[in-house]
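User: I'm curious whether this sequence folds into something compact or stays loose and floppy. Could you predict its structure so I can see for myself?
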Amino acid sequence: MAVTSQHHAAVDFAAFPILDWQTAGLLKPSLAKPILTTLESRLAIRRMGRLSPDDQEALRRALSLMLG
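Assistant: Here's the prediction. I'll summarize afterward.
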């Protein structure tokens, strides 16, 4: 899922706010958007953080909506 700090009035299907964004290591309040992609591990610069259990559950629900 993509993560953005750009909050727009029209929220994408299956997008959800990351409630514990500071704990996750994000710089601003953020949304997870329903965009799936892959990235080679050598291209990752650093780990930003870890989602809280509540945000992990929101991610599971969003993925379930997206993938059926």
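Summary: The chain has a mean pLDDT of 84. Residues 2-38+48-67 form one domain.
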